[in-house]
Prior knowledge:
The protein is of the alpha/beta class. It has 3 domains: 2-25 and 280-515, Ribosomal Protein S5, domain 2, CATH 3.30.230.10; 52-178, 3-Layer(aba) Sandwich (Rossmann fold), CATH 3.40.50; 184-269, Helicase, Ruva Protein, domain 3. The protein is 41% helix and 19% strand. The protein is built from 20 helices and 22 strands. The strands form 6 sheets. The chain has a 9-stranded mixed β-sheet. It has a 5-stranded parallel β-sheet with strand order 4-5-6-3-7. α5 links the parallel β4 and β5.
Amino acid sequence: MKYVFTEATEEAQNAADAIVELEYQDLLPVIERKDFKDTSEFRPRSFARLQLRARNAVKELINNPYTKILILCGSSRVNTIEIAHELVAELSGQEPTIAYAPTRFEFFGNDKVDGVLTSKGYVIMPCSHLLDHPKWLNMSDACIAQNESLKLILCGDATECASLQMIWPSLDNVLRSDIVMEFPIAGGVELMASLVASYVKKYKLHNFSQEAIELLCIWSSRQSGDRRWLGIPEIRLCTLVIAANRYANGNTVDNLAVLKAIAAEDYRINYFAELELRNHRDNQILLATEGEEVGQINGLSVIETAGTSYEYGEPVRITATLRAGGEGDVIDIERKAELAGQIHAKAMMIINGFLANEFGAEQPLPVSASLVFEQSYSEIDGDSASLTGLCAVISALSDLPIRQDLAVTGAVDQFGDVQPVGGVNEKIEGFFKICRLHGLTGTQGVIIPASCVDQLVLRGSVISAVKEGKFHIYVVSHVTGAAKLLLKTPWGDSSVENSICAKICTRLDEIGNGKNPRPWWKFF
């Protein structure tokens, strides 16, 4: 890391408006190196064996005679039923029954034939099936109460488990456990190698090399959104491992095969991301990556495609304009047009709060501002553009131009402190692609919250550009730091000549006193 536009003193570096530029070393993965040839050196360990919480819950279900129901809350990205099956079979020594979608007769049985709830042993069932048949629940209570040999495990995601508990009061006091998908990066290579070794054994695949395992760790770290953790969406990881095996050139799957599998998956579902790039190339979307402009700034957003759930970064042009009079507030055009959600509306109110606290504490502001996301035709939500919008309004108030070669993301509070946001990797990569499309100038980059540094798990092309000095990543902790970098002017206060604050205060005084430096006839 290196400090920008500040002295090298410790006091200056700890200042709220300090600006830090990340160097390429700061972007490298924090994976511990472990020398080995391939996964044959590791004992296979399935995803179910990593679930210590679920394992503890299954033990409790087995050993406690008064506990009959266990709810395993997972995600659509893991096979919760398979996890439950493996844990029950291992810990109880019995083969559980899996009832995916039993009919009413199969569920309750009769005097001659046992049903799911009248049989003995362990039964695993998805919550979704009971949600589809709510009329079964009252009779289910009676069957479960009478069957002392039954142990029922209900599996589902958070929404399904919560919905079932709302309509089935008997679940209020049952045993529960979560399926964990995130694991510490410390020891992550061994964990990933053991997990991949279990897939190698189960599906009869080639062994994976050390470099391939390390690349899978980087991929998993990106899934978690934090480079200090491995995020393992088991179903997707298993699919990726099997695909990489097909690209293997020899008896070992190397990192090139894994890269090909990741690239192939990305290619299949990134059509809309490529379409956005085409629109930028054809100048259908107006976004500048060079020059300066008053009241115009590049924001960063994340788009998730319907159906494929593919996330990609989409830069957006945000503009702010002023008008004399009004209540001194920021008019959110997106909200007025009913194209913004409640969190976005809250973020705009926070911008109002900061401006009122900074410049209108003693008397009302004599101007109002309008803020809009240009060329945005669908609903938006979230507070990650509040720093961006605030900087655009500050530019309009001070009449200082904003650098168009920088894009900004971050949330702010009423005191101007910059808060973390999500999707930082996708946002940075989205703006980098647009800059590369327009031509890298060596000054382009992004501004992100300092608290988001640990989220960074960027693609190699971005890291290489940072290393070569063609692209820059700046982190800030306060809006004053972002404004100082964007406007190329110190923040200062009203007494510091040519500072941002002084220019804003001077302009507010002129407008409030009717001394507009640009008379209306000058506009014609």
